[in-house]
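Task: sequence design from structure.
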């Protein structure tokens, strides 16, 4: 019998709530590629970010340790010098490891340092700093302008498209080898840049309000009330949940993931595909927006999908098969 290659493609988006995927019950979400991964594999119903902030969430996934142990307790706080990453562990055991996309585990700012950490393939290292270095001054500003989608953004301009391009090149070059490829998108995180037709797809759309939108944080921790600010004073009945570019970008990045998945099926059919997000978004539930140190479902509960050879097809793992996103090395 032919020996199966050891290949994993780990796909991650930023700020994607579970209910931003069609396969989790919201049929208004245009996420056909991710829905197909769920249909052809396993969908976790109760997967939770270890700490729902960009850097700490990644630190848990890529070291197999909790943020309070690995040192990355907040954004822009690096891993400890003695902490081994998944890239180092795999490299030391003969597995080619490559990381393309948002890293957030060095001591740099939001964009990173542009330097490849030990363990990952330097030829494919591409963090957000390297993306900025490809742009002129005007386009650097435009790349962080949440209004840019209104005035026409080409797919080729986005970070997500450039990450996907590099992933395709990697798969073309190393499809016959054992590998672990991470593709970590910044999208749909603000500024949520996306080209047409995605930029216009949700202009008039109102996201469904859950009962938690009416939670005004009475009796809850004081820091949550400070985080909510004047939102607590707003008429909760009058609130409409509209985020056209955020939801449009959510659909757009699904299309970029589709390019990668198609390439996997063509060139690396032995590969296991794993998809998740680092955290969700409050989106006015509990009067909170964004993410932070709170374990509300809207912020901490994330999609987790696994498909590939040997994975049960059409599986739905509920509370009896829950996951906290820490990988043990």
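Answer:
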């Amino acid at each position: 019998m032919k020996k199966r290659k050891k290949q994993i493609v780990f796909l991650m988006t930023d700020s994607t709530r579970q209910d931003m995927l069609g396969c989790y019950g919201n049929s208004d979400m245009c996420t056909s590629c991710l829905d197909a991964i769920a249909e052809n594999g396993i969908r976790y119903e109760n997967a939770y970010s270890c700490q729902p902030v960009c850097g700490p969430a990644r630190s848990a996934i890529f070291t197999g340790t909790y943020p309070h142990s690995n040192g990355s307790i907040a954004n822009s706080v690096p891993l400890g010098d003695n902490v081994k990453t998944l890239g180092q562990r795999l490299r030391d055991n003969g597995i080619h490891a490559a990381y393309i996309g948002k890293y957030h585990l060095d001591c740099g700012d939001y964009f990173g340092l542009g330097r490849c950490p030990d363990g990952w393939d330097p030829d494919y290292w591409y963090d957000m700093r390297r993306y900025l270095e490809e742009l002129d001054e005007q386009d650097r500003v435009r790349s962080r302008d949440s209004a840019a989608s209104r005035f026409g953004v080409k797919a080729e301009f986005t970070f997500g498209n450039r990450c996907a391009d590099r992933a395709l090149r990697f798969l073309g070059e190393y499809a016959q080898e054992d590998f672990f490829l991470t593709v970590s998108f910044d999208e749909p995180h603000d500024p949520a840049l996306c080209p047409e037709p995605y930029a216009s797809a949700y202009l008039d759309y109102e996201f469904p309000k859950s009962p938690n939108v009416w939670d005004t944080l009475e009796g809850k921790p004081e820091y949550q009330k400070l985080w909510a600010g004047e939102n607590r004073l707003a008429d909760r009945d009058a609130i409409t949940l509209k985020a056209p570019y955020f939801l449009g970008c959510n659909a757009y990045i699904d299309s970029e993931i589709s390019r990668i998945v198609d390439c996997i099926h063509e060139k690396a059919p032995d590969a296991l595909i794993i998809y998740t997000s680092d955290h969700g978004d409050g989106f006015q539930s509990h009067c909170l927006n964004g993410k932070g140190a709170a374990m509300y479902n809207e912020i901490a509960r994330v999609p987790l999908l696994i498909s590939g050879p040997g994975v049960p097809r059409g599986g739905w793992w509920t509370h009896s098969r829950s996951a906290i996103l820490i990988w043990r090395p």
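The first helix runs from residue 32 to 39.
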